[in-house]
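Incident review: delayed structure delivery

Summary: a single-chain prediction request sat in the queue longer than the usual turnaround. Root cause was a stuck worker, restarted by the on-call engineer. No data loss occurred. The affected request and its eventual output are reproduced below so the record is complete for anyone auditing the incident later.

Affected input:
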Amino acid sequence: FAVGVTANKLLCDAEIAPDGSVVVIEDVGANGLSGVYVHEDVGGDGGTARALWVHTMDIHECDLAGKLVRVRVYSGSDSRGLGVPAFDGQLDIASGVMALGDRHNRTRQLLFGTPKIVRVSVFLGSEIETIQFSDSESRYPVSGTGEVNVLLHGETGFVQALGYPMPRWSWLQRLRRRGRDRTPRTHVEVGPPVPTRCAGEEPVPAWSGVAL
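Output delivered after worker restart:
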């Protein structure tokens, strides 16, 4: 989906490999022990969580498409143009470090700030992506969105940790290469929007006691 919002500040724009069919947005201290499942067809309003498990296209579909799930994080208050609302509540970032992707994810991204509870809204893409095999005229919709927008309300002070993960993790390059290798058999098209039901470059300081 096209993002035409300029009133918000873009904190992070990353491609994340889903864990199965979920992209995790969490406080790094949550350790995957508890979270709230976010899906456009499941009510996700209110409450405070330390982790959000956002339903997306699955990793096999990412493999076929040769792309990962695009996740953008904004700070601000303007929700126009961000997509289909799927969650509106509080995220407890007790460690002061917010993560996109779980702790074992090689495409994980970190945003550093101070410990706080922030209001967060999650929006999902409204376009339906399809996979078409070259030996068939049928098109198969993917199981979830390929784009996620996260709005942290207000001026949160979070900044992305540049250079994380380390370059040795070439997961995205391998995935894209595998996607290109599959081109003779498959291709991916994005269909038109369909009605959807709402449900700095300075060194990063060390954070003691936080497992990254």
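Verification: The longest helix spans residues 171-181.
Action items: add queue-age alerting; document worker restart procedure.
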